[in-house]
Amino acid sequence: MTRTRKDYLDLLQETIDYYSVNPEKRRATSSDDFLCVYKTADNKRCAIGRLIKEEYINDAAKFKGDILDLSNSKHVDQHIDELFKEKYQGFDIDFYYRLQKLHDSSNYWNENGLTIEGKSYSDDIKGDVDDIISESF
After folding, report:
1. Domains of the chain: which residue ranges?
2. Nearest to 27 by CA among 117, 118, 116, 100
3. Are 48 and 56 in contact (CB under 8 A)?
4. pLDDT in tens, 27-46
5. C-alpha distances in Å from residue 121, one per residue of 37, 103, 106, 126
6. Could you read off the pLDDT of 60-96 as tens digits, one per residue?
7. Whole-structure pTM value
8. 19, 51, 70, 119 — which has fewest CB within 10 A?
């Protein structure tokens, strides 16, 4: 599946909107409140965890590491794209990583949504979308 610039920008905005509405949803952390996890015991999910299909989320929840690590781990027996719900397949892994980084950084969020730093980082992602798309071919 080939993704367009609009697809990338829409997913970025969807992620920002999702975590801006209810900041409590944003941090899906491990019980020690240190590591971000894909899914917590109370079903909170990180930016990548919410994109993962139900049949894979429990295995992914056991994994500690970013999307790049997950894609190379024993938890992924197939192409990383197959972990995602169909709606979220076909994006470059660097883009998923950047979504995860945006989500994970406490400097990028406050109770009202994105901070100035977060807005700047999301603008950087928007500016890099064309490069991300061209590098994935």
Report:
1. 5-135
2. 100
3. no
4. 554 444 446 678 877 888 88
5. 21, 11, 12, 9
6. 888 878 888 888 876 565 578 888 999 999 999 999 9
7. 0.85
8. 119
